[in-house]
Every structure is written in C-alpha cells, then in structure tokens.
C-alpha cells in the first residue's frame, strides 16, 4: 500500500508543480488585464447585455484577461523595439520620476530586472551561498557588488529566489570570497528554481576552491 502511494505521489507531483506555476502566472496575468475587461463590459452593455455578462464571468474573465495581457505585452515589446516606442516609454518614465513613491517602486523593480537580465560586471551572475545554514547551499544571483567602509572588503548583494515562484526570495549580503561561482546562465538557474531542482546539470561547483599557496 505504501509503495503504491509513493508511486501515485511521484506521478501526480510533476503535474502539481506545473499547475502551481501555471496557476500563479494565470492569476497574475488575469489581475493585470481585469480592469480592461471591466471597462469593455461597461462599453458593450448598452448594446448587448449578454456579452457584458460573459465578460464579467469569472472563468471567461480569467481566460480572456490573460490572453489580452499577453497580446498587450507583445504589442508593447514590438513598440519598444522602435525609436518612437522608446521615446513614448521615456516620456512615461519621466512622468513616474515626479511621483516619489511610485518612482521608488518602479525604479527599483526596473533596476532589478535589468540587473538580472544583463551580464555581471564582475565575475559570474549565478552563485551558490551558504544559506540558510553553513551545511546547505542555495542558488543566488549577484545583483550588486559593494565595499565595506571599514575594511574595504568586497561584498556582494545576492538575491536568493524561492521555488517554484522565483519572484519572491531573500536578499543576503556576504563577502565575495564566500561565494561559490557557477557556470550556469541566468536562464538555467531560473529553470532550476522553477522546477524545484529537477532540471539540474549532472555536476556543479559545490565546494569553493581554496587559493593555492605560493
């Protein structure tokens, strides 16, 4: 009986993890597109009450909202690839810069995403750190290299994402010499986190190499 329970769990677990990721993304996209659907419902109600009711149905609303959001993202991506699109985005960002609280959130988020997507200035982006204890290692992303005011020691701000949702996590500050550098790309590391470590390479630099003595 225990054996069949384990087999059943191993069969369902991949589907469950896939659903968790899909459900998170679907709800996120639906929340973004929800105001647009409600606005469309108000516009079409004088002409077709049935269509407006469909637009406000929760199941239909989630599906269409997600689809409209994806289409909107695609259109924004195409627009941002052209000069006129970049100018429009620049004007939009200048407006946000005049709103203290909004600018802080927007600016911080944009800097974080740009940092993760671009190659690091120093060393490798993806590292392993001792977290949450010295006997364990966690995958992290170097977001910034700083310096200790007292000693001049190089310090790294490392973002440690949680699994299977990498948009939440922890920020750790630790000396650069305590980092274990990997040869993973950002995409490989994100895939590793989202899949709960199942999509991992056969080998990894787990132990930091000790400097050789002259």
Describe the structure.
The chain contains six helices and five strands. By secondary structure, it is an alpha+beta fold. It folds into two domains: 2-116, no CATH class; 122-194, SH3 type barrels, CATH 2.30.30. Strands 4-3-2-1-5 form a five-stranded antiparallel beta sheet, with helices on one face. α1 (2-44) runs antiparallel to α2, α1 packs across α3 (58-80) and α3 packs across α4 (83-96).
Concise overview:
The protein is built from 6 helices and 5 strands, in the order αααααβββββα. By secondary structure, it is an alpha+beta fold. α1 packs antiparallel against α2.
SSE topology sketch:
Layout: H1 2-44, H2 49-56, H3 58-80, H4 83-96, H5 100-117, E1 126-130, E2 137-147, E3 154-161, E4 169-175, E5 180-181, H6 186-194
What are its keywords?
single chain, 214 residues, alpha+beta, SH3 type barrels, 2 domains, 5-stranded antiparallel β-sheet
